[in-house]
Amino acid sequence: MISIREIDPADLALFDEWYDAHRAGAVAGREAPLVGAREALGFSLRNPGPLKQRIPVGAFEDERVLGAMLFEYRLQDNLDTVEVEIDVPPAHRRRGIGTALWQWAVTRSAQLGRTIVQTEVAVPADPSPGAVFADRLGFQLEHVEEHLVVPLPYDDLRLEELRSTAGRPDGYRLTSWAGLCPPEHQQAYADLHTAMDLDVPTGGMTREVVPWTVEKLEASEVRIDRTHLALVTMAHTDAGEPAGYSLIYLSRGDVENAQQDDTLVLREHRGHNLGTHLKLANLEQLAKHRTTQRYLHTWTALTNAPMRKVNARFGFRAVEQHRELELRLPSLRPAARGLILDPDDRILLVRFEFDDGPLWATPGGGLEAGETVIEGLRRELVEEVGLRDFADPPHLWHEEVVAEGHATGYDGVLNDTFLIRTDHFDPAGSMTAEELRAENVHGMRWWTLAELDEHDGRFGPRNLPDLLRQVLTSGPPTTPLGL
Description:
This protein is an alpha+beta fold. The protein is built from 13 helices and 21 strands. The longest helix is centred in the first third of the chain and has 16 residues, at 12-27.
């Protein structure tokens, strides 16, 4: 049986196993993948910053990690979005592991009140497993970039040819540094970062651009410097006005890859070969600081024709497409429910009274802020029926109901249901009868499967008798069944 749970990155052995699954899934079928180094990702997860929360999530079978997910969301801006990366090694695909990880992401997104899910997929060629999976989930393609590489060390003959044809950067001066930005350039460098965020093509992706300040720049650079060496070249006019910059990262934990990140020339300074001069100067820095790296990677939007021409002159070769996708979710109230069975396979149900009539459903209810699904399940069952002290239960069903009237202020409900085997007991929770009635609960009782089959009223889930019969006949599913 597959179970989904968060990884504690401070548990180094468990993190290593999670990272192995993450990397194996991410690199499969790709010629020149660039995956965050183990040390850099581990440091980031163990030392969270103030701007973003990153949660590693694993898919487990018998305590082995078979799949990995990185679930991220920003804390001060872009408060409607989450970012998800799901990686399943080829040997474990087509078993529902990716779907189970996705269901966890949907539930956590609902808990956070976020309705926009973003992801990135590397596509060496169509059909790509990641792209097919995202399409099946309903993601929409919003932006496409080329992922390009050039071998290192860089070709000296090509460098000389580029220098000879580029001419002189008349009217401009270039300044280069490695590591943290010198204080005298911080304000200009922060302003250029803001300009880059506003200028970079993003297609239809939902993005809130937040201006860079010197304080934000300092905090970001100090954090990045722990795991990467930044190589920067900045262009100023002879009058001292910033005109552009280029940035390369050398990972301190990846011995094979370097990353050409930003290259920006402000619009009023374009047409002077300044982008070429910035890249040439930064390649000189790379030659000084490079150790064993064999590839320099970069990404360019298909719509950015000028930069694609520059990359071609520098010898970059496209190895895959980098697709950015987005999915808008309905606003659903997340809830945890228990399929509670006694030794005689009787099921405990509660009776809800609504305007359109009664409904018998599994006990449970909405999650509170900060709760995990299992924590919410335990609290709800203590309050509603008085059940406590049960082991972590298997996850049976993941049900998304989009309809009016299920939860005030929401588009519907999201029910995650778990199987709980227990001795027979008389249900009596910590809530009073008045409190239960305030939540439309007007009774509870044990049912046999035969009684469910004979009942002509409504159940939640709607096909509860058939679902229970399947559980009693075959046991819980390997991965949660989507209803």
